[in-house]
Amino acid sequence: MNVLIVDDNQAAADLLQELLVLQDHTARCTYTGRQALDVAAGEHFDAALVDLTLPDFPGTEVARQLRAAARGEPPLLVAISGYSADEASNAAGLFDHHLQKPIDFDVLDRILARPLAG
User: Fold this and answer.
1) End-to-end CA gap in the chain
2) Which tens digit of pLDDT belongs to each residue from 33-62?
3) Residues 47, 3: contact at Cβ < 8 Å?
4) 36 and 62 in contact (C-beta within 8 Å)?
5) Are 51 and 7 in contact (CB under 8 A)?
6) What's the pTM?
7) Which end of the chain is flanked by fewer CB atoms within 10 Å, N or C?
């Protein structure tokens, strides 16, 4: 899968990118919501891992805009945050999955191996 990573913690995003590449995915890191949307406008992504707390605007807004801009099938959207799924419930409906930091990579690997059926 071609995966967009959106996280203002650059070290965490870069490490996640390395792990995804080792699993035969391609991955691109962005560190702000604006940067993510600019990159997504010019490239197709199968999935996006979006931090809910970004410096410029909320990850929920990134998800909303990624879904709205999708040409055809929207990307698989995974919320990543330091908040539990219950605490991040305002993201419900925008994201297909929620992973709490630190991310359990085995769980992420299973999510990416089973993309949503259209």
Assistant:
1) 16
2) 999 999 999 999 999 999 999 999 999 999
3) yes
4) yes
5) yes
6) 0.90
7) C
